[in-house]
Amino acid sequence: MSQFARSPVTAVLGPTNTGKTHLAVERMCGHASGMIGFPLRLLAREVYDRVVRMKGPAEVALITGEEKILPSKARWFCCTAESMPLERETAFVALDEAQLGADPERGHVFTDRLLRARGREETMILGSDSLRPMLKALVPEAEIVGRPRFSTLSYAGAKKLSRLPRRSAIVAFSAEEVYAVAETLRRLRGGAAVVMGALSPRTRNAQVAMFQAGEVDYLVATDAIGMGLNMDVHHVAFASLHKFDGRRQRRLTIAEMAQIAGRAGRHQKDGTFGALHEEGPSAFTPEEVLAIEGHQVPRLEHLYWREGEPDFDSIDALIASLERKPEDEVLHAAPQATDLAVLKRLSEESWVRDRVRHPRMVARLWAACGLPDFRKLGVDPHARFVGRLFGHLSEGRGHVPHQWFADEIQRLDNMGGDVETLAGRIAAARSWAYIAHRADWLEEPAHWAERTRAIEEKLSDALHASLTQRFVDKRTTVLLRQIGADASNLPVTIGPEGEVSVEEHPLGTLEGFRFKVAAEARAGDKRMLLAAAEKRLAGEYRRRGSALAEAPDAELAQVGSAIHWRGHDVALLKPGANLVRPRVQLDRALDVLDPQAKAAAQARLERWFGERVAADLPVLAKLDAITREEAAGAPLRALANALLEQGGLLPRRAAGTMIEGLDGPARHRLRTIGMTIGTLDLFAPALLKPRAAARRRALMGLEQGPPDAAVVLPRDAKGADLAHGFRPFGAQAVRVDLVERIARAAHEARQGRKPFAPDPALATSIGLKPETIARLMAQLGFRTARGDADAPQRWIWQGLTPLAKPKPAAVPGNAFAALAALRNG
């Protein structure tokens, strides 16, 4: 505890927009000296600039991890909470956003400052009203003062990005989501400023300046804006209500929602908040809305704590002190932070223990472990970097080598690349800036601090330019302001081929119900002007919806799993009851239609598809009818279902049990609809004809099939499998109907179990190889008969196959006639 612990402590609690930070700054400047700890580097810099304007640069210091401006006669200090020099005596001390003591990652820092940071004459603690029970338990001497919000904060409901009012801030919880929202706003509204905690103050200030100056009307930010950054925001919209807190994806707490939503409104100007989604996990619940509007945040039940003055006698003593449990019941031990995890990793290294044999070196090791993981590398990679750093700090004169430092920052002195690349370089530059601002880590710390600052500023300017280029379209912004609220006055022209133009600016073409931007038109123009011309396009969509609902068959086609209308996607075939009754899912582009028009389009497409199946694949349509016919009997319905799943072609071995369960009428029913119960396969000859085969492949999503006239294929050819109607035999595959004809001819030619030689003309004339014939005959239940090597191949019926002998069928008198009939039919 500080020696000034008996100084008056005032806790100013309340929601956002209460002027708590402004009050603290005014009180600090009224003392001879003072210090304020802030949660963000950005906020510390903002207040530093304000105090410099009041007191002059020679009197004010800025101390953060990566930036240190410390005039020799500085009396007022603006710091991040982690960087507060508690050993320095000042008349006034304040801690901002003290409720962050409940944060698992940084909470122990704020709890330590809450307990130990005291001014000689006055101490002020700023925070949410949720902190009240913690203050009563931990700082009972504190006078608690409530500050009401200056203006009203109310819920405005859910609004899409295209409907957000001007001067809105959209809050997202990852860089990817921030960029996606900003890109959408560029297309819809001409652009947005971007604010994230990972940005340098210079970039952040430049982005905020654009928003404050009205160059853009929207701001996209992470939850960093909830920590006191002062901007003229009228409405706060949540892109999501979930965030990754470093350990898991979770929903925001009421306190977090209120903190962020409270940025809407300024001083006595009312503000509103809402979401981008009306339903689902990204929508507010009624209870959350009431709590935020009423500033009723749940009271904190505990704060996180870690020893603020650890034991440096040895590494083990240091770790033990950092893992010590708090004595007060409202304090919980802080989860292991990155610095402690890195310390534990390095303590396992023998060379580290060899060098750390004195409290001074233990403290130096702990200082090195305090280097933040700005690049978000994770514990192991970051520990290796810190290990290399400590290796230099623990040998020789204890300085980082000039050449290593120079080479690393020179590598970062590159202004090329996209937004993500530049942001990554800035994160790396922050690590070196942190090192440069440790006066005892470099031989010339002032030189290297200036060098890293210059590089970070150049990268920041490049990042600002890149963000502006990527997310701001000034032409669109100006045009939107020119057309004002009456956007329907813009002349919109839609040509006979769907060409769309506004004010003689060609934007692209309406292809079906989807807008296709022209190569020469910018996305920002296209989206903005289409939004402005919404009424005109709505009429065109209605006209096209009616045309689709009444479309003749010639305008509709199935292409793969899609249904096209006039060559454009309008629906997808999704798995349904069975193969011939899929679910017809309208393309999302048809969402522009009203529900009645969509229902009419859906009905037309379903009717067209059913008619096409009945016309092109009548066998499958009849199998589908059997599956729904109670009188058909369970065995026949089961077999019909199995056949439908395989597109009307099923190996007999797979259906053996079902076939055995069929009675005479059921077998007759299958034959009447065109099914053949063959020796090896169940199939419908009609499905093998070119048009039906192509339709069947499309229905089943099969790849390109065999040539239309093919009856025998090489085994490795496309379509040489049962799915396409070909049965493999060794190096060749034979079409199943031809296999059945050969089977019937063989059984007609045999005489009991006597050796016989079937007429080879049919098999050899279509190109079957001897080994193919041998495999085929074997599968049909025959074995080779021993005999004269010069005699024709002879076979014996051995009846080993479980398949029944095929029933006699009308087979042409000779093999050549059979082949001719097959090829013609």
UniProtKB/TrEMBL annotation:
Family annotation (SUPFAM superfamilies): P-loop containing nucleoside triphosphate hydrolases
One Pfam family recorded for the sequence: DEXQc_Suv3
GO terms assigned for molecular function: ATP binding; helicase activity; hydrolase activity
Ranges where the Helicase C-terminal domain occurs: 134-323
SMART domains in alphabetical order: HELICc
PROSITE patterns, per the entry: HELICASE_CTER
Keywords: ATP-binding, Helicase, Hydrolase, Nucleotide-binding
Alphabetized InterPro entries for the sequence: DEXQc_SUV3, Helicase_C-like, P-loop_NTPase, RNA-DNA_Helicase
PANTHER family named in the record: ATP-DEPENDENT RNA AND DNA HELICASE, ATP-DEPENDENT RNA HELICASE SUPV3L1, MITOCHONDRIAL-RELATED
Protein name, as recorded: Helicase
